[in-house]
Structure prediction request, 223 residues.
Amino acid sequence: MSRSTASAIAPGTWGYDPAFKSEMSSHDPARAKALLDLYGYVDRDGDGWREQPDGRPLELEYSTQPDQQSRQLVEQWQKNMAAIGIRIEFKTAKWPENLKASTAGKLMMWGVGWSANDPDGDTFLALGDGGAKGQANKSRFDLPAFNAAYQRQKSLPNGTERQAAMDEAKKLMVAYMPVKIHVHRVFTDLAQPWVVGFHRNVFLRHSWLWLDIDTARQPALRR
Prediction:
């Protein structure tokens, strides 16, 4: 389950503003076409596909993985890009290989999930930090105005001043869009009554370490 997002900062972390709205979550093919036309990305030879302003082919390359979920996403990308006249090719590799290539700056486009290890929005803004190129910042985005806002919010205590710096940073991420944030994932868990200590901590990946089975209850509850 998931819900669309207008901001890079996820719910449950400091800096998230549920009232914040932006173009990050917009799906507007008509506007996309208009913007492409405005900047000269038009179909020059009548074959149904757009070319670059200098006449060269306009082709995107999207890296993906050989699993069912990735194949479903590929179908969506193919359909949506075709709707606005853009060719897109898909390069399939295993996830670790894509991670290595992304870290080295060799991928044009790739899609991954991101999560915080503590309840603070800084970890999401790090996706655009110029000082983290090749690390959290896989896009290698490096905008002085963003870097300044990002560093400013890191040095401030939680409060209105820090929120203002974070808002400035996330607005710049929307405007320049080094990453396109699609959704915030929402998980629903089911557990048997004899599972002891089950609780999904959204900031901890290894909560299974604290789980156990109440074997005394298990047979009785199964009857």
